[in-house]
Design goal:
alpha/beta, 14% strand, inorganic pyrophosphatase (n-terminal core), 6-stranded mixed β-sheet, single chain, 3 domains, Diaminopimelate Epimerase, Chain A, domain 1, 48% helix
Length: 449
């Protein structure tokens, strides 16, 4: 993409003018990597503009959190990586509101300033995330904010929008960020970066059965590859890298992992000049803070605070250990099969969304979407993940989750390939039956087209 759509430029210009005309801001964002990246970009932009602000992270935007938003006393409200499902209600507020989101458009704004890739014919699932929109807003405020493109790439990586190559608005960010020397693309590999014994044990992208989460399994794989245990990725010769990558590919194939999923693991990486790490590493740090209840530290880390980056690093390693243990346990238990999807209960671990994505790619039936649920609270939190091959057959998880959740008095939405929601505890079984019917209908309609 050589240039931005004029309509988007006009919306961003309006957003910048609104911000310049106010003093104190309340920022609301999502608690995942994209949301924390978005919040960090907005916070840095407001600081540089001499504005005062407060940031709040939400696990989701629902009716209860909308009450919080309506009660805010700020001069102006900025919402990032959230908001698409509540545009009509936000429009009814008296306070100036800016929404920088990328989820499926439910309605267009009449009063508030609303920037979303879908509004300009760009797919918000693959070609522009919350951090993308936040960065474009930051640059509309001041061209000197282009250095924040590095943080935006943490959001892009967090929402996996780089997996099959950059497109749309993300391509524009890379071209401009690369031209300015902030972002560099490097070739990926099935072999993880960093210390191999540590990364092969902790990493779940990919999850390698019998290796991930197993000291003995990692040691056996390294021995089979003829590589000493103290080696890091950067220490390996081309022959050693090739040998280890081949062994990992064999293990994944035996496990039933699709070739498309392996190609996704070996994706290009994006090195961030001022951070001395790649985008996925920064994404993991911010994501771990947000999901561990340390959102403030995550936002400060995304703004470059060294002390909070150390907190984020420690939090990320602890979270990685918990996630791989939870994944090993899920692999042992297996998934419950319905006609048109599969599901699992992650109440004990709490890594619902992350487990859902890992399971979908590594141990689940690739022909059916995967649903994860956490029943530790009422309403029950839900996550869903699909694969591009499922979308081609008619699956739309954003629509399916929205309809299935609403059918039992809950709320849902998101992207065609990844969506979430919440439903009352006593309606979970009915939700599962309704979702099965809805997905079956989508598949039947997909066959007709």
């Amino acid at each position: 993409m050589d240039e931005l759509p004029p309509k988007l430029l006009n919306t961003l210009s309006k957003a910048a003018d609104v911000v310049r005309g106010h003093r104190f801001f309340q920022v609301y964002s999502h608690y995942d990597a994209d949301g924390v990246s978005s919040a960090a970009i907005i916070a840095k932009t407001l600081i540089r503009a001499g504005k005062e602000f407060r940031v709040t992270l939400f696990t989701t935007l629902n009716d209860n959190n909308m009450k919080t938003i309506r009660a805010t006393k700020a001069d102006c409200i900025i919402i990032s990586d959230l908001g698409a499902s509540y545009i009509d209600q936000l429009d009814e507020m008296d306070t100036p509101v800016i929404v920088l989101d990328h989820h499926t458009v439910i309605s267009e704004a009449k009063r508030i300033v609303y920037a979303n890739p879908h509004l300009y014919g760009i797919d918000g699932m693959t070609s522009g995330c919350g951090a993308t929109m936040s960065l474009l807003f930051a640059v509309a405020m001041d061209e000197s904010n282009w250095d924040l493109v590095q943080v935006a790439f943490a959001g892009i990586a967090g929402d996996r929008q780089h997996i099959n190559g950059l497109s749309g608005l993300n391509t524009y960010l890379f071209e401009e960020g690369s031209r300015r020397g902030f972002v560099t693309r490097t070739q990926g590999s099935l072999v993880p970066s960093g210390n191999l014994m540590t990364r092969l044990f902790l990493d779940t992208d990919p999850y390698i059965r019998g290796v991930s989460g197993s000291v003995e399994g990692v040691a056996a794989l390294m021995k089979e590859a003829g590589i000493p245990n103290d080696k890091s990725y950067s220490d390996l010769s081309e022959d050693e890298r090739s040998r280890l990558a081949s062994l990992i590919a064999v293990r994944l194939t035996e496990q039933g992992v699709q070739l498309s999923s392996m190609m996704e693991v070996a994706r290009d990486r994006y090195e961030l000049r001022d951070w001395r790490m790649d985008a996925e590493h920064l994404s993991n740090l911010l994501n771990s803070c947000g999901r561990s209840g340390l959102g403030g530290a995550g936002i400060a880390a995304g703004m470059g605070d060294e002390r909070c980056l150390k907190i984020a690093s420690d939090t990320d390693e602890e979270a990685a250990r918990g996630l791989v243990a939870a994944m090993v346990e899920l692999d042992r238990r297996g998934l419950t099969q319905m006609t048109n999807f599969q599901w699992f209960d992650s109440t004990d671990s709490g890594y619902t969304g992350m487990l859902c994505g890992i399971a979908m790619q590594s141990i689940a039936d690739p022909t059916k979407p995967t649903i994860g649920m956490n029943r530790s609270n009422d309403p029950v939190n839900l996550s869903s993940r699909g694969m591009f091959s499922q979308l081609e057959r008619g699956i739309d998880l954003a629509a399916a989750m929205r309809e299935a959740c609403a059918s039992v008095g809950g709320e849902g939405g998101g992207h065609r390939i990844a969506a979430g929601g919440s439903v009352p505890e006593d309606m979970v079984d009915q939700f599962l039956r309704n979702l099965d019917d809805i997905l079956g209908r989508q598949l039947a309609e997909g066959k007709k087209e």
